[in-house]
Design a protein that fits this description.
Layout lengths: L1 E4 L2 H5 L2 E2 L3 H13 L8 H6 L1 H4 L4 H5 L23 H9 L3 H12 L10 H20 L3 H22 L1 H8 L3 E4 L2 E4 L7 E4 L6 E5 L16 E5 L13 H10 L1 H9 L6 H8 L3 H13 L3 E6 L2 E6 L1 H6 L3
Parallel strand pairs: 1-5, 2-6, 6-7
Antiparallel strand pairs: 1-4, 3-4, 8-9
Length: about 325
């Protein structure tokens, strides 16, 4: 069991965040034990071919038989807008000896795929995670992030209507708060108690957990992972014939961009939501704008894009 003690100031600093790297790390649970994650079987089927081209031995060396992963794969996000490129950069800059210690603590030894020079092992891991992202996550990240953002919005409404304690006490059966002491029922030999002490407490929704959990090292930044709502309908196919036509005409990425531009958005926001670089988004937006499928309006230094009537008609709206 893990407990966090919060002061009045700590309560006011509770935050939510989304971590693409954390989501990738936790997804290894579904690969290792698919039966425990039935709601993500559609994702496993869709990514099966892509995963066959990856070094799965190395990927699975990052998870143990209890489906635990090293804390380095569970970074605390600074906001709901954390980017995978930034998280991978921080991962690459990790002290190799820390990476080795966490892997050894996870398995009791260093798996064959990660043996040898620690720096080389860390670099190989960062490279395979980047490839894993590009082939298995980036094509689906918009759908995943949208669900995670919707969960955060729901929790925010709960806080506004019922208060922080009520939200925490309904987020997961393993999590509760009373008298400013937050308890997380996690598997560990001893009860660990820590004061948040101004470090900030962050809640992180994920689609790859069956129950709330926390980093194994209680001395790290306070963070609680919990299952996001709405996963049952996450992989339902809602593409109409017109949408399929738009995909055939524009390509999947541009059709997806057009679909999300029902509200004004900047290229930076779109890149974060879709898991691609801002420059790539700008390239697609220029093509859509040239085809009169989106409009653009400048607000100070920011250019906002919005789907035009022609773009809406193309999607069958």
């Amino acid at each position: 069991m893990l407990t966090y003690t919060l002061t009045e100031e700590d309560v006011g600093e509770v935050r939510f965040g989304i971590s693409p790297l954390c989501e990738m790390g936790l997804s290894l649970r579904a690969i290792k034990d698919p039966a425990r994650f039935p709601l993500q079987l559609p994702w496993l089927r869709r990514t099966e071919k892509a995963r066959s081209c990856l070094d799965t031995e190395l990927l699975l060396a990052l998870i143990d038989t209890r489906l635990s992963t090293p804390d380095l794969l569970n970074p605390r996000p600074g906001s709901p807008l954390t980017r995978i490129v930034d998280e991978l950069d921080r991962f690459r800059s990790t002290d190799p000896s820390l990476f080795t210690r966490q892997i050894e603590a996870l398995h009791g030894e260093i798996p064959a795929a990660l043996r040898g020079d620690p720096r080389a092992a860390l670099d190989r891991t960062a490279n395979i995670l980047e490839r894993y992202w590009e082939s298995c996550f980036q094509p689906h990240w918009l759908r995943m992030r949208t669900l995670l953002e919707a969960d955060i919005a729901y929790r925010g409404r709960q806080i506004a209507q019922f208060g922080l304690s009520a939200m925490i006490n309904t987020i997961d059966t393993r999590v509760s708060i009373a008298d400013a002491v937050l308890t997380v029922q996690v598997e560990c030999k001893l009860t660990t108690s820590k004061a948040v002490a101004g470090r900030g407490l962050t809640f992180v929704p994920t689609i790859f957990t069956s129950g709330a959990s926390a980093p194994s090292d209680p001395s790290g930044p306070p963070m609680i992972l919990y299952a996001a709502r709405g996963q049952g309908a996450m992989w339902e196919t809602s593409t109409s014939a017109t949408d399929a036509g738009a995909i055939q005409l524009l390509g999947r990425t541009r059709a997806a961009l057009l679909a999300v531009l029902s509200e004004p958005s900047s290229s930076t926001d779109l890149g974060l939501r879709m898991g691609v670089t801002t420059s790539a988004v700008n390239q697609h937006l220029r093509a859509l704008h040239a085809g009169r499928l989106v409009t653009s309006t400048r607000h100070g230094r920011v250019v906002l894009y919005l789907r035009s009537e022609l773009g809406t008609a193309l999607l069958g709206g």
